Amino acid sequence: MTPDPTPPRGAALIATLAGLGRVGPGPGTLGSLATLPFAWLASRGGVAAVLALALAAFAIGWWASEQYVRGRRTQDPGEVIIDEVAGQALTLAFAPQPLGLLWLIAGFALFRLFDIWKPWPVSLAERRFKAGLGIMADDIVAALYGGLVLIAARLILGT
Fold first, then answer.
1. pLDDT at 71
2. Which sequence spans correspond to the domains of the chain?
3. What is the pTM of this model?
């Protein structure tokens, strides 16, 4: 019996951020941009709240992504952008809280840089893990790279 390539509706809505991942070019960038207001709001509760956002997006994103790719030939479809929510939020957790505009922009740019560039071990995470975890893992590693650069900037700027 061939698996049904149609994902459950709820999983598809979560994985694609209510279809945003299917809109135009650059779905990953759109997913990261969509995360910014939520991360900004969460930052009012401090680092723990931003980390909670990242963790919640990771957990539900892993499940939704797993459901979305079940029975498909591709293991990381471009329209799945819940991983950007987890990664973008995690990167921003390393910035001073509450988030100001410049830190939002810097965190956004750094996360997108490392998510697109995929330096090692981001590329390793992308290749090593499959399906839901594979979709999520490379973004988490890219987020850690972005976070390290934000920490360095904070040390240099004394913030």
1. 72
2. 9-157
3. 0.93
